[in-house]
Write a structure and sequence with these properties.
By secondary structure, this protein is mainly β. It contains no helices and eleven strands. The strands form two sheets. Strands 2, 4, 5, 6, 9, 10 and 11 form a seven-stranded mixed beta sheet that branches. A four-stranded antiparallel beta sheet has the order 1-3-8-7, with no helix packed on it. It starts with a strand and ends with a strand.
Length: about 120
C-alpha cells in the first residue's frame, strides 16, 4: 500500500485549502483512512478519519467545521478540506490507512503512512 499526499502550500490566513491522499495497492476490502497533523515540536495528532465502506467519519473534538474529510472512491483518494485557515494550522499533514482500527484517531492504529505535505499559514 502506498499513500501519496498533495495539496500542501504556503497560504494567507482566512483562505481554504484541500489536501489529497491518493492510495494505491489497496485491495477491494474496506479501509480506515485518516488525516493527522504534526505541528513543529508537537506530537502527531489525529484530525479526522473515515471508513471507506460505510462512509462513517470521526473528527477530533473541535475539528468538525474547520476540517472536512471526504472520500472519492473512483480516484482512491481521501481529501481533507481546511476552512478559514489560521496560523495554528501550520503543520505537516499526514495521511494514514489501515485495514481495521479500534481507535480511528490514534496514530498507533495505522500501519500505512504517506510522506506528508506541508501547510504553512501566515
Amino acid at each position: 500500500v502506498q499513500l501519496v499526499e498533495s495539496g500542501g502550500d504556503s497560504v494567507q490566513a482566512g483562505g481554504s485549502l484541500t489536501l489529497s491522499c491518493t492510495a494505491s495497492g489497496l485491495t477491494d476490502d474496506t479501509y480506515y483512512m485518516a488525516w493527522f497533523q504534526q505541528a513543529p515540536g508537537k506530537q502527531r495528532e489525529g484530525i479526522a478519519a473515515l471508513n471507506t465502506g460505510g462512509g462513517v467519519t470521526w473528527y477530533r473534538d473541535g475539528a468538525k467545521g474547520h476540517f472536512t474529510i471526504s472520500l472519492n472512491n473512483a480516484k482512491n483518494t481521501v481529501n481533507l478540506q481546511i476552512h478559514s485557515l489560521e496560523p495554528a494550522d501550520t503543520a505537516m499533514y499526514y495521511c494514514a490507512a489501515a485495514r481495521w482500527v479500534h481507535f480511528p484517531l490514534r496514530s498507533d492504529s495505522y500501519n500505512y503512512w504517506g510522506q506528508g505535505t506541508q501547510v504553512t499559514v501566515s
